[in-house]
Amino acid sequence: MVTVDAIWKVLEAVKDPELPVVSLVEMGIIRQVDVLPDGKVIVTITPTFSGCPALHTMKADIVTHLQACGIEAVQIETTFSPPWTSDWITEAAQEKLRAFGVAPAPHHGGQFEITLLDVVACPYCGLENTTIRNSFGPTPCRMIFYCNACQQPFEQFKPL
Fold first, then answer.
1. Residues ≥6 apart with Cβ < 8 Å to 129
2. Structure pTM?
């Protein structure tokens, strides 16, 4: 009988298809794991946006990883309640995002409108001499900034 803890360990290897330096667990997208008495595994996920273009890829990757470990009966459930928040991104993932060149969203505890006015530090040089260039990045959960100090464009995860 497979344990919930063992499944979480497997799921830690499932990378975010849009940001492959972090896992879906680290991003807080994988919310819950249940093992039914018949051995069926149910994984509950909350995508960053209801229209997340990577949703089908994430589901397929979760199933593939679990089946590779011998778990045949896998069900993925999607929930939007509560909605995903950038506060669910772990500290380790924030560091990985920064090293990848993406400024992580600050933890906001639900007061995200305040963080929209915060200065964003450049993930490359660490300076705060940055300006927003576009509030719509390559995905709905990111926006584009420019560092006036090192002249690097970069993305920031939106505080959601």
1. 122, 147, 148, 149
2. 0.85
Q: Given the structure tokens 């600050």, which residue do they identify? A: 106
4-78 in CATH: which number? 3.30.300.130
Q: Is residue 118 within 8 Å of residue 143, measured between CB atoms?
A: no
Higher pLDDT, 86 or 26: 26
Q: Are 102 and 156 spatial neighbours (Cβ–Cβ below 8 Å)?
A: yes
**DSSP secondary-structure letter at 120?**
P
What are the backbone dihedrals phi and psi of residue 87, each rounded to the nearest 5 degrees, phi first? Answer: -65, -20
HSE, CB side, 13 Å, CA atoms: give it for residue 111: 6
Q: Which two tokens stand for residue 74?
A: 């896998």
Q: Please give the order of strands across the beta sheet that includes 102-103.
A: 102-103, 153-157, 142-147, 130-134
Residue 151 identity (one-letter amino acid)? Q
Distance CA 115, CA 79 (A): 26
Q: Where are the domains of the chain?
A: 4-78, 100-157
For the chain, the C-alpha Rg in angstroms (whole number) is 17
Which distant-in-sequence residues (6+ apart) come within 8 Å of 25 by Cβ?
8, 11, 12, 14
* CA–CA gap between residue 68 and residue 36 (Å, rounded): 19
**By percentage, how much of the chain surpasses pLDDT 70?**
96
